[in-house]
Amino acid sequence: MIFALAFGKDGTAKSRFYGFPIARIGVLYSAAQVPLSFLTMALAGMARIRKQADELASSKSELREKSRRLASAESVSLLSKAERIKGIAVVCSVMDGSTANDLKLTADELCKKDSTVPCVSLLFAPNAG
Predict the structure, then answer these.
(1) 45: exposed, middle or buried (C-beta count within 10 Å: 0-12, 13-18, 19+)?
(2) Which residues, including other chains, have CB under 8 Å from residue 82's CB and lie 6 or more apart?
(3) Which of 123, 11, 27, 20 shows the shortest CA–CA distance to 78?
(4) CB 7 within 8 A of CB 19
């Protein structure tokens, strides 16, 4: 299209004289515009990926915090039901739907709750893997 505009139907010297610089500018502009367009699209895609990665990291940290809070609440409930055997709190529980990480967090919270009384905890999760 650039060449059709630069070198119109009339074959005058003026058309030939002005046609070459205009065509050259058009080709140079296209040669610069196409790679810059692809670069802009790639950078926009990378920004979108970065944003999703940040959202994922935020969701993971929020999930870890909520799991910790749940483990803390669960440990309070388990300690209230613990049996005392010769001054030692014994906690035994089957925690359906918990993961191995949930069991570890709950056991850690059990140890933190009442450090004056020794505690033995037996926590099971059938589907923890």
Answers:
(1) exposed
(2) 89, 90, 91, 119
(3) 123
(4) yes
Per-residue pLDDT of the chain (129 residues; tens, 9 = 90+): 555 655 556 656 555 556 566 667 778 888 999 999 999 999 999 999 999 999 999 999 999 899 888 888 888 888 888 888 888 888 888 888 888 888 888 888 887 876 667 888 888 888 765
Please state, in angstroms and rounded to a whole number, the distance separating the CA atoms of residues 9 and 29: 23
SS3 119: strand
Provide the residue type at 69 as one letter.
Answer: R
Residue matched to tokens 């959202």: 55
Q: What burial class does residue 90 get, using C-beta atoms within 10 Å of its C-beta: 0-12 exposed, 13-18 middle, 19+ buried?
A: middle
* Number of C-beta neighbours around residue 108 at 10 A: 14
Task: Supply 1's token pair.
Answer: 């299209």
With residue 120 as reference, give the H or E element that holds it.
Answer: strand 119-124
